[in-house]
Description:
Elements lengths: L2 H13 L6 H17 L1 H12 L3 H27 L2 E3 L10 E3 L6 E5 L7 H12 L3 E5 L5 H14 L5 E3 L4 H9 L4 E5 L2 H12 L5 E4 L5 E4 L5 H13 L11 E5 L3 H16 L15 H11 L3 E4 L3 E2 L4 E2 L2 E4 L16 E7 L2 H9 L8 E3 L3 H10 L5
Helix pairs in contact: 2-4, 3-4, 3-6, 4-5, 9-10
Amino acid sequence: MDISKLIQSQRVFFNSDVTKDVRFRTDALERLYDAIVMNEEDILKALKEDLNKSSFEGYMSEIGMVRDEIRHFIKHMKRWSKPKRVPTPLAQFPSKSYIMAEPYGVVLIMAPWNYPFQLCIEPLIGAIGAGNCAVIKPSAYAPATSKIIAQIIEKIYPSDYIAVVEGGRKENSELLENRFDYIFFTGSTNVGKTVMEAASKHLTPISLELGGKSPAIIDKSANIPLFAKRIAFGKYLNAGQTCVAPDYVLVHESIKNEFVEALKISIKDFFGNNPLLNDNLPKIINEKHFLRLLDLMKNEKIVIGGRNDKTRLLIEPTVMTDITYDSAIMQEEIFGPILPILAYNDINDVISDLKTREKPLALYIFSTNSYIQKKITNSLSYGG
């Protein structure tokens, strides 16, 4: 595939102004919705092959979210597209002022492997809904999902409107050498830096959805069984390979042991007595990532889980205690089914420590004390 020619053909198509018509955009999204419904079984099979996701998890965290997003866009797109009347400054009297929404043009969507369908199609929905043309680059680490995405897109859209470029680093590099009107990237911080550097050469606006170490803070007022269940669900969904998963837990010393016991119960409820025998335990994406996670578990106190199956790239939901900020596992985003627990005595110390660390993508507060909730939310910065 000649990527430069592909981008040029999309630019010609965009300049025809066809994509700006609301009816055209609505029709494009309706076709996408119908294609997803028609190919749902094949999408779920691909997610099972790439990440061992169950049908329930695949629908809940990927297909269902995408379908909801399409319906939301179709419902509101006409209103969003209307010019918005705004006040006119006195210096411009007697003119009238409006805010006009317009598309960027030809956009590049670079998707990750952890939610390979959802994080590829959701940005596409926004691109189509806003009237853009788009080139989609699925992750090479999720080849089955990449293939079904390519098949769906090629069947419902001409390539000079929406196109899929499959492949690995070579294709990524070639895409980034070209000028796009907007780039939407989801992935690691290191690759995000490469994307930003490439975009800067053309002054291309970008959105970077990256990762980080997102803490969960539990104070002594917590409903321990309920909060343990919620943390276990959020952490071990997709084997912890979720950018907004709780990366580690900060729990008040007085309830630490009770919280660990509650986690054991929740993990057993979700995955059974032996998670490695659970056919729906999500797998680690590849051997390199698998070995990295095993290395992070070395020389640490494991109180739950810890077993693995290298042949199937499975790691049990794992919990570690007696962790400090100096521990190896606290030096990078985990992105796996390993949950370190750090104990604290004073919430002010927690806030002071977190202020010295990189801003997390998410922060979770588990407390029934409104004063503690407000103190944390008003003191700390977090989010994309």
